[in-house]
Amino acid sequence: MKMNKKIGIYSPVVENSENEKNALCRLMSEYFGGCSVSKIEGYYLMKNGELCKDEIFYIYSNCTKKDYKHYKKSITNIAITLRNALKQEAIGIQYNETLKYI
Questions:
Q1: Domain that holds residue 40
Q2: How high is the pLDDT of residue 18?
Q3: What are the pLDDT digits (tens) for 41-72?
Q4: How far apart are CA 12 and CA 21, in angstroms?
Q5: Residues pairing with 56 in the sheet
Q6: In a designed cystine with 67, which of 22, 52, 63, 95 is the match (CB 3.0 to 4.6 A)?
Q7: CATH of the domain at 73
Q8: What angle do CA 80, 82, 88 make, to 5 degrees?
């Protein structure tokens, strides 16, 4: 089986995000047969110029071209739901090598 596509979601580590992460992992495992999670650090500059650090879960799956096409819209909708549930301004979603903030 050739799994040459990748879908990933960058989700901030905030209160209650562990439950959201587990639900997303379950769903991606149902869609794609499994997923991987990395806990990473992200940085950005605040309006006052201070550097701010965020802890982030990167949850991703490699998948076939067929599954990628079939589930891409669903994963996008899930990312939007996650963004709203965690009260975030944006959530990063990666389609292969392209990162999009939604």
A1: 5-101
A2: 87
A3: 999 999 999 999 999 999 999 999 999 999 99
A4: 10
A5: 12, 40
A6: 63
A7: 3.30.70.120
A8: 85
What's the residue count for the chain?
102
Domain count, the chain: 1
**pLDDT given for residue 60 in this prediction:** 97
Report the chain's mean pLDDT, rounded to a whole number: 93
Provide the 3-class DSSP secondary structure of residue 89. Answer: coil
What is the SS3 string spanning 3-61?
Answer: CCEEEEEEEECCCCHHHHHHHHHHHHHHHHCCCEEEEEEEEEECCCCCEEEEEEEEEEE
The pTM of the full predicted model, rounded to 2 decimals, is: 0.87
Give the H or E element holding residue 84.
helix 65-85
Task: Pick 85 or 35 by higher pLDDT.
Answer: 35
Token pair recorded at residue 101: 């903030």
Report how far apart, in Å, the C-alpha atoms of 47 and of each of 50, 54, 64, 91 are: 7, 16, 41, 19
